[in-house]
Amino acid sequence: GPTQMQQNNGSNGPDFNRMSIDEIISLNYTLEQLLKFRLIPRFLTDCKGSLYLQHLINNNNNNTGYIVGLLVNYLKNHCSEILSFCNHKYGHYVLKLIFKHTSISDKQILMTNLIN
User: What pTM did the predictor assign?
Assistant: First the structure.
């Protein structure tokens, strides 16, 4: 039950594979936590997950550059996945936001990875 999940305060966190996206969203994780627990691909490819990431980018008290920077670094380290996220029916909304807010040099790096 939920008490078991709350007791699991180890660095591994809850068993996300057994949780629905709604349950994970209800934990109100920061982007850092989503990255730490390797939840970005799951969020990018889920309707509500994609909306949650868009919300993190758009509503973060003028911290957009930092949030987008974390996502850009994630994408740079997962180049092979960028194209599938761009083509995904939910992922592409987040990728558009990242491209909108990132630097020209980072745009070029990401685009290069799309072409190659």
Answer: 0.84
Span 97-111, pLDDT tens digits: 999 999 999 999 888
- Give the pLDDT confidence of 37-78 residue by residue, as tens digits: 999 999 999 999 999 999 999 987 778 889 999 999 999 999
Q: Distances from the Cα of 42 to the Cαs of 29, 89, 108, 112, in angstroms? A: 14, 13, 25, 24
Q: What is the dihedral of CA 27, 32, 34, 37, to 10 degrees?
A: -110
Q: At what angle do helices 104-115 and 91-101 cross, to 10 degrees?
A: 140
DSSP helix/strand/coil, 6: helix
Contact 70, 110 (CB under 8 A): no
DSSP character at residue 49 = H
